[in-house]
Amino acid sequence: PKSFIGLILLPIVGNAAEHLTAVSVAYKGKMDLALGVAVGSSTQIALFVVPFSVIVGWICGVDMTLDFKAFETVVFVLSVFIASGILADGQTNWFEGI
Q1: What is the distance of C-alpha 1 from the center of its chain?
Q2: pLDDT level of residue 94 (50, 70, 90 thresholds)
Q3: pTM here?
């Protein structure tokens, strides 16, 4: 239960305002702003929260590193390529899901 709260619920609740903003502007037809909010939120997590969590883990004596194994690295690189491929052309269809 603790890992579910930390890995699933906490990020959703913590970014609820950004999620609400992205959904509301997408509903109004401003997809460029909605995608900007979504990608900006992901970038913020990747560049600030993960390293900050590692530093707090070191302070608290919990063994946390940024030494990702091969599987995590491959999944991360694939997610970057998929997001880049969807966002690069500036157009969308039903298959892309946006």
Answers
A1: 22
A2: low
A3: 0.55
Alpha carbon 81 to its chain's center: 14
Per residue in 4-42, pLDDT tens? 777 777 777 777 888 888 889 888 888 788 888 888 877
Instruction: Write the DSSP assignment of 33-95 as a string of letters.
Output: HHHHHHHHHHHHIIIIIHHHHHHHHHHHT----S---HHHHHHHHHHHHHHHHHHHSS---TT
Query: Each residue of 73-83: b (16+ CB within 10 Å) or e?
Result: eeeeeeeeeee
Tell how far CA 89 is from the center of its chain. 21
